[in-house]
Write a structure and sequence with these properties.
537 residues, mainly alpha, three-stranded antiparallel β-sheet, 9 strands
Length: 537
């Protein structure tokens, strides 16, 4: 496994995922190391004096206490006090992958060379990440304004070897000194110097790391939404003209164009979505006693490219914002060389996580919409007024004695509705903190957690759609089995009908739900389809 070189400019979402989930190691780019050392040497030689000008967090208090001076003699104690006072998170511990992503983003921010901390600090954080010392970081407590102060302070409490801080090492929770010692990181007690602590805790890293993982997973989920939508189209013998590339070319929306192309590739070669197949009258088609050419399908099928594509466009926008944030210096103050070759400390607000909050709120709305339209398609599959002859509730014979799939469809509706309640943008819910020193906050951490919760519900909705589409094709195989499925949908149906125990009569639904959900959650469905027709856009 190749080591990822961090330089502050080129960290990708995929690399964050590799570091967080695969344990990929990191190292500093030589140029970044050189600049960190060069700046810190200047600071040590010119700024660590009692007569140095007041510089926020360097020789002054922080937050509302910014006007209180800190002497050089007290600076090491001041650094530790910031860690202890700011380690104030609440709630359950963040997952190991979120903590690893957070650590990687924090290290990469230092590689821009404008944070002013010591290289020993950066090296220790790299060592912790590479050797698998994962601080226990409560997931709640940050408003994403002065960065993710509380979560990062918990990270630093382990870094300094504070005996009451906890870390996970090789899956076991233990006091920080024990974790460091077992990992071979010495000394277990580590002293922070001027500016070290503020550089470590004042940044976007929890939000950015969590967002990177969610965006990566959301992209795969949106691809699977196209895959399962195509299977539902096969189930109702849908009309293909709505996916003609000429329609989408004149709309000029890239996500829509790609989604329509995905559907065309998935159903390429399908005979089930032809007029010849639609001409076969199914016994339960009470609305159409005689065949008439189907002019168009309902919106949840016909407008798949427009809706899925719009959601994809929001995902792409979120990826753009987030990639910038992964490669940003987000602490305060920052240090820059001036025209005379001297350093200047500049106080600003790069720690404010507004871009991440917007990105994740938009992604949340997009994911909710994917769930909404999926729920409408699966609803249609059960409704005899919408499904063109499929049995009511997709019940087996004899209908009535067998109830079918109405309740699992309702479960998907419940989850889709639950997701809707989380669509409100957190970024719009600012609240003043710290005696109004921070009078506007981003709420990015909640935006990230909320997007993750929505995403964690998505396999339940899309999984039910896949289950019902598979059931619909299974129930009609006697009359329609001679009509081939598409190049992408055929192997998917073959696998789903293999892992889901489908029979005519009612059976224990959990035995069908579990494999149907796992096909989505594990991305196996996407792997099967891409193995047959190549990458889904």
């Amino acid at each position: 496994m190749e080591t990822i070189i961090l330089d502050g400019d080129n960290l990708t979402i995929d690399q964050v995922v590799s570091i967080a989930r695969d344990g990929t190691k990191v190292a500093l780019a030589p140029a970044s190391r050189e600049e960190i050392i060069r700046k810190r040497n200047y600071i040590d030689e010119n700024w660590l004096t009692e007569n140095a000008p007041a510089t926020y967090g360097f020789n002054t208090g922080v937050g509302k206490l910014k006007d209180y001076p800190i002497s050089q003699a007290d600076n090491e104690k001041f650094q530790k006090n910031i860690v202890l006072s700011h380690a104030s998170g609440v709630g359950e511990p963040a997952s190991e992958e979120i903590v690893r992503a957070m650590m990687a983003v924090r290290i990469n921010a230092f590689c821009l060379g404008v944070s002013g901390l010591r290289i020993e600090v950066v090296d220790r954080l790299v060592e912790m990440l590479n050797r698998g010392v994962h601080p226990v970081v409560p997931i709640q407590g940050s408003v994403g304004a002065c960065g993710d102060l509380a979560p990062l302070a918990h990270m630093v409490s382990v870094m300094i070897g504070f005996e009451q801080a906890d870390a996970y090492y090789q899956g076991e929770r233990m006091p920080a000194p024990a974790a460091l010692e077992k990992a071979g990181i010495a000394p277990t007690e580590f002293v922070l110097h001027a500016k070290d602590c503020l550089a470590l805790i004042n940044g976007n890293s929890l939000s950015a790391g969590m967002a990177a993982l969610t965006v990566y997973d959301a992209e795969r989920m949106m691809k699977m939404a196209d895959v399962y939508a195509a299977l539902s189209l096969e189930a109702i013998r849908g009309e293909q003209a709505a996916f003609d590339p000429r329609i989408h070319a004149v709309r000029k929306q890239p996500g829509q164009i790609n989604a329509a192309e995905n559907i065309r590739r998935l159903i390429k070669g399908s005979r089930r979505t032809t007029e010849a197949c639609r001409a076969v009258h199914l016994d339960d088609d009470i609305l159409h006693p005689t065949h008439h050419a189907r002019v168009q399908d309902q919106y949840s099928f016909r407008c798949m490219p427009q809706v899925h594509g719009s959601c994809r466009d929001q995902l792409e926008h979120a990826k753009t914002l987030l990639t910038r944030e992964l490669n940003a210096a987000t602490d305060n103050p920052l240090v820059f060389w001036n025209d005379m070759g001297a350093l200047e400390f500049l106080s600003g607000g790069n720690f404010h996580c507004e871009p991440i909050a917007f990105a994740m709120d938009l992604l949340s709305i997009a994911l909710v919409e994917i769930g909404n339209i999926s729920e409408r398609r699966l609803f249609a599959l059960c409704d005899t007024t919408l499904n063109y002859g499929l049995p009511p509730n997709l019940a087996g014979q004899p209908i009535g004695l067998n109830y079918g799939y109405g309740i699992i469809a309702t479960a998907a509706t419940a989850v889709a509705s639950e997701n809707k309640t989380m669509a409100f943008p957190s970024v719009a819910d600012s609240i003043s903190t710290k005696s109004s020193q921070e009078d506007h906050v981003s709420m990015a951490p909640w935006s990230c957690r909320k997007a993750q919760q929505i995403l964690n519900n998505m396999h339940k909705i899309i999984g039910v759609e896949g289950l019902l589409a598979t059931r619909a094709i299974f129930l009609t195989k006697e009359k329609l089995g001679s009509f081939a499925l598409g190049e992408g949908t055929a192997p998917l149906y073959a696998e789903l009908s293999k892992v889901i125990p489908l029979v005519q009569e009612d059976s224990y639904m959990q035995n069908q739900i579990t494999p149907a959900f796992e096909m989505v959650k594990s991305c196996k469905a996407l792997d099967i389809v891409e193995g047959a027709i190549g990458a889904i856009k």
